[in-house]
Write a structure and sequence with these properties.
The structure holds 2 protein chains of 2 kinds.
Chain A lengths: L7 H12 L3 E7 L2 E6 L7 E6 L7 E4 L9 H11 L14 H18 L7 H32 L14 H9 L3 H10 L9 H20 L6 H11 L5 H6 L3 E13 L6 E8 L5 E7 L9 H11 L13 E9 L8 E6 L4 E2 L9 H14 L6 E10 L6 E3 L5 E3 L7 H7 L4 E8 L2 E9 L2 E4 L1
Antiparallel strand pairs in A: 1-2, 2-3, 3-4, 5-6, 5-8, 6-7, 8-9, 8-10, 11-12, 11-14, 12-13, 14-15, 15-16
Helix pairs in contact in A: 1-2, 4-5, 4-7, 5-6, 7-8
Chain B lengths: L1 H5 L13 H5 L9 H18 L23 H11 L3 H13 L9 H10 L4 H5 L3 H8 L3 H8 L9 H6 L2 H14 L1 H10 L6 H8 L11 H7 L5 H12 L5 H11 L2 E6 L2 E6 L7 H7 L3 H7 L3 H6 L7 H15 L2 H9 L42 H5 L4 H16 L8 H11 L7 H14 L8 H11 L8 H10 L6 H21 L1
Helix pairs in contact in B: 4-28, 5-28, 6-9, 8-9, 11-12, 13-15, 14-15, 16-17, 17-20, 20-21, 23-24, 23-25, 24-26, 26-28, 27-28
The chains are: A alpha+beta, B mainly alpha.
């Protein structure tokens, strides 16, 4: 019961209320509990709680507290758990406010459970064909643009509007309903002003887009998983419901690490998982609604704490815990992005990962993955080694003396502190530029970096 | 690459020119459009580059830290420390000092945050240095600002003479302190032997170690140190010598001062007469002399001496000198007497507008009337400084009396006098006796109607640090009760203070 409390203060307040004399008119019927609590206002607060319901327990209280559940609801439940609330025969004896609220709750629950009206299949097929045509046309246009860039010389890109040189072609891709490609173009737009060696970087990106367009052109000849990957990168999304309808992988999923990308156009959170029994990796991608928010330390910190990700049930997964659940993977290869389906319990503490890679193992996994999806930008890593605080850049060295660069805006001092020169297990994101550290294990306790 | 940069119209490319991975797959490349060829080739090369990342080989990690021997802070205690890191530094320093005294160290993940805080805030350094453990000192070597924090501490070091020869500053100080505790003379001799080779900062730091176990045998060395080039060393040597009443230094100071003051009797009343000093101010000369001199010479108690009327305008100088001596010596009896009052004949306007409040509730203030209209002699020690040398019980009684005046409404909370009293009480080290704690609550209750303001902030911050957490009274609960019954504007500050007190209680229980 106390686990429902939002924080320690309301927990203590609830405990005091539960044992105090301030309650009148309490009662319960099945999963519904009600009562009135004298507070610091003139009228007593009307409190009710319902422990049933498909989306978890619900609370109602007329006090002005913004905590959810408030101390009155929590105190009422504690009282009830202690047996101090008399059980009634049915909900008729409940006071009016409790009955009204309960009626509203059941109405909302049934409305949500009703299946959506089936789509008109003919219209759907027509829309799909329309989109496919638009995408093909758009990609053809992009291919021409790419070839023109190469023919005219990349050095011209620096002059064309500087860091926004690909802006207009990106907008055309949005019109062509290929948002994945548009995003890539926007991302590579600032490369001409990114410093030495930019032509090589720009050419590599253009080449990747070119490869994607070639792949899309030959979509029917590709094996199904690769085709799904290509479609996804062009910008065709698969709905969450559709993914959940597919088969699930049941396992105890260890939360390896969490990375927030708040500077992107749409703020996103990546949560990396690994199955304890299957050894499979997975990533959850959460996006924040809106996408713009006021700058300022307070708001970003609060945002990152999970509040900004819209109360998404997975946003609060903490590295170092593990969750017994079914994971459903999105189509494509290699299988990585997933959503959590059925949960078989609450997240619980987990020991440190028992299997770790060395640098060679990590690179082997990475190149194998790249062979399946040449457009991959990052890959999960769980490596054992020691941080090396060199200048100009820190490195992470494994038992064999091979080291990779450690990325990050600031040096990962907690990583160095936990290691102390001794090997530690480190989970992070690998990319060709290096390893971004996310979580290090200090004994069995996970430390977020 | 060149072709792509300059453009194919200027530099044509044939697929047979390509080497490497692109050359090997040249059959797959676009044969018709040179731009396509370039893009295809680039795709192959890029994929190859990203897959075949080169890694550094033969890299060695840093030398590992020595294993830690002492216990790590238990979980709940560590969370209390973590919460305190976001709050007042005073509470954090107290918690860490307590943990350090009992030999605990903080868990490794907390080290960077604490080192950062102590790097920015000097007042935290000693406390953080005490809980670093060998892992913390190892980590501190990687950043100069963290290294300064680690050096603020006194490391527990093995009894290895090599530490004295080659150790870091904090290690050498630790070695000398340990030796001094065992064999005071040996420590002094060791220090004296290498004195000439020490740097100025090291001389100043190491000299303070002699404060422990100070005795007449140290006089010769300290006398020599009074001629040091560095002023910090000279001052410290003088301070230490002043604490040796038998030393020649003290005796000279006493003689100089004794020559200046004498007691005369006129009819039935006694009077103190002061002559002009040969060099320096009267306050300085009187301040350098041991207070016991006056008691022995004139056969009067501190209270009687302080109450003696002084002829002329020298009254302020004499009081200042006695105050300085009381603070330097830590003399509680004289401090009490000086706080109660000055000579009877003078006005009782009192310092700072507070009506006369004394330690024993006496009616006279620390008044002195200076013909120069309130200008005090240089270096006049404030009441708060004197209060710091009182015994804890005497201080609590004084504090309760000061706060009682505020609670009774005789002085406005916004006045300068109230501010002085509140600042003084807020400076009293904890844990506060119950008498003082009760008086603090009295003031808070009086101030509820006025609302929180500049007056309440420092008082609540001090209460968070110093309200006692052992003993029968649960002050956290009392504060929460007060918050429940107060206007909502008080809710946050009072509950925050209650939380800090409760957290300290939890902390002490966890590390007992």
């Amino acid at each position: 019961m106390l686990g429902l409390a939002a924080d320690g203060v309301s927990q203590r307040a609830a405990e005091r209320l539960a044992s105090g004399p301030a309650w009148t008119g309490t009662g319960s019927a099945g999963e519904l509990v009600w009562g009135s609590c004298a507070g610091s206002g003139a009228k007593p607060y009307q409190v009710a709680a319902d422990l049933s319901g498909p989306s978890g327990p619900g609370y109602k209280c007329s006090c002005p507290s913004r905590k959810f559940p408030c101390k009155h609801a929590l105190g009422l439940l504690l009282s009830w758990a202690a047996g101090r609330v008399p059980e009634q025969a049915g909900t008729d004896s409940a006071p009016a406010f409790a009955r009204e609220w309960m009626k509203g709750r059941t109405a909302r629950a049934t409305a949500a459970a009703k299946p959506k009206a089936p789509r008109d299949p003919v219209a759907a097929a027509r829309r799909a064909q329309q989109r496919a045509d638009r995408v093909s046309a758009g990609l053809a246009e992009l291919e021409t643009w790419l070839r023109d860039q190469v023919r005219a010389g990349l050095s011209g890109a620096a002059g064309q509007g500087g860091y926004r040189h690909a802006e207009s072609i990106a907008a055309r891709m949005v019109d062509a309903q290929a948002p994945g490609v548009a995003g890539t173009l926007r991302r590579l737009s600032p490369i001409p002003v990114s410093g030495d060696g930019w032509p090589g970087r720009l050419l590599a990106e253009y080449a990747q887009l070119h490869l994607l367009i070639r792949a899309y052109g030959a979509l029917d000849a590709l094996p199904a998983p690769l085709a799904a990957t290509v479609r996804s990168r062009v910008g065709f999304t698969t709905g969450r419901e559709e993914v959940l309808a597919g088969p699930g992988v049941t396992d105890h999923w260890l939360v390896l690490g969490r990375r927030d990308l708040l500077d992107a156009a749409v703020p996103a959170r990546r949560i990396w998982l690994r199955g304890r029994d299957s050894g499979r990796f997975a990533v959850l991608l959460l996006f924040a609604p809106g996408g713009t928010f006021a700058t300022g330390e307070g708001t970003s910190a609060g945002f990152a704490a999970g509040g900004g990700f819209g109360g998404h049930p997975d946003a609060g997964l903490v590295p170092g815990t593990q969750l017994h659940a079914d994971l459903h993977f999105y189509p494509g290869q290699p299988a990585m992005r997933a959503v959590i389906g059925a949960r078989h319990g609450e997240p619980g503490p987990a020991p440190q990962p028992d299997e770790t890679d060395d640098v060679t193992g990590l690179l082997d996994r990475w190149s194998a993955a790249l062979g399946q999806d040449p457009w991959l930008a990052e890959w999960p890593a769980v490596v054992a080694g020691v941080p090396v605080p060199d200048e100009p850049r820190w490195r992470f060295v494994d038992g064999s003396g091979r080291a990779v660069p450690l990325l990050g805006a600031e040096p990962a001092w907690p990583l160095l502190a936990v290691s102390g020169g001794y090997p530690v297990a480190l989970a992070g994101e690998w990319s060709p530029a290096g390893l971004t550290p996310l979580t290090v294990w200090h004994g069995d306790r996970a430390v977020q970096l | 690459m060149d072709a792509a940069t300059l453009g194919l119209t200027r530099r044509p490319l044939r697929s047979t020119e390509l080497g490497g991975v692109a050359g090997r797959y040249s059959g797959v490349l676009d044969g018709q459009d040179p731009a396509g060829t370039v893009l295809d080739a680039a795709a192959l090369v890029s994929a190859g580059q990203r897959a075949g990342v080169l890694v550094a080989e033969g890299v060695r990690g840093p030398a590992a830290a020595d294993p830690d021997t002492g216990p790590e802070l238990p979980r709940r205690a560590a969370s209390v420390v973590r919460r305190a890191m976001g709050a007042e530094p005073g509470v954090l320093a107290d918690l860490l000092a307590e943990a350090g005294r009992r030999g605990y160290r903080v868990p490794a993940p907390m080290l960077p945050g604490l080192l950062d805080l102590a790097g920015r805030d000097v007042s935290l350094r000693a406390a953080v240095a005490g809980v670093l453990g060998s892992r913390g000192r190892w980590l501190a070597r990687y950043r100069p600002d963290w290294q300064r924090v680690a050096e603020a501490g006194v490391a527990r070091v093995p009894d290895d003479p090599a530490v004295w020869e080659t150790g870091r500053r904090d290690e050498r100080r630790g070695y000398l302190a340990q030796l001094r505790a065992r064999d005071a003379a040996a420590a002094r001799e060791l220090l004296a032997a290498g004195w000439a080779r020490e740097t100025g900062d090291d001389r100043a730091g190491l000299l303070t170690v002699l404060a422990d176990g100070l005795g007449p045998d140290d006089e010769e060395f300290l006398d020599a140190a009074r001629a040091d080039r560095k002023s910090a060393v000279r001052d410290e040597a003088a301070r230490l010598l002043a604490r040796l009443p038998g030393s020649a230094f003290s005796r000279r100071a006493a003689d100089r001062a004794a020559a200046l003051l004498r007691v005369e009797r006129h009819a039935l009343r006694r009077r103190l007469v002061a002559g002009p000093p040969a060099e320096g101010t009267l306050a300085q000369v009187v301040g350098a002399a041991p207070l016991v001199l006056w008691e022995e010479r004139f056969g009067l108690s501190p209270k009687q001496l302080v109450g003696l009327p002084v002829e002329g305008a020298a009254v302020a100088e004499v009081q200042a000198g006695w105050r300085m001596a009381a603070v330097r010596e830590g003399n509680a009896a004289w401090a009490e007497a000086l706080l109660v009052g000055g000579p009877e004949a003078l006005g009782s306007a009192g310092a700072g507008g507070m009506s006369g409040v004394g330690v024993a509730g006496g009616g006279r203030g620390t008044g002195w009337r200076d013909p120069a209209q309130g200008r005090r002699p240089a270096g006049w020690p404030e009441d708060a400084e004197l209060a710091a040398v009182l015994t804890p019980q005497a201080r609590a009684t004084r504090g309760a009396a000061l706060l009682g005046e505020l609670a009774a409404g005789r002085v406005s909370l916004a006045s300068a006098g109230a501010a002085a009293a509140l600042t003084e009480v807020a400076g009293y080290p904890g844990p506060w006796p119950d008498e003082l704690a009760g008086a603090v609550f009295g003031v808070l209750r009086r101030g509820l109607a006025a609302g929180p303001g500049r007056w309440s902030g420092p008082l609540l911050a001090a209460a968070a640090r110093n309200l006692p957490v052992t003993g029968p009274h649960d002050y956290a609960a009392a504060l929460t009760e007060l918050a429940d019954g107060s206007p909502p504007i008080w809710s946050a500050p009072l509950r925050r203070t209650a939380g800090a007190v409760a957290a300290r209680r939890t902390f002490l229980e966890e590390i007992r």
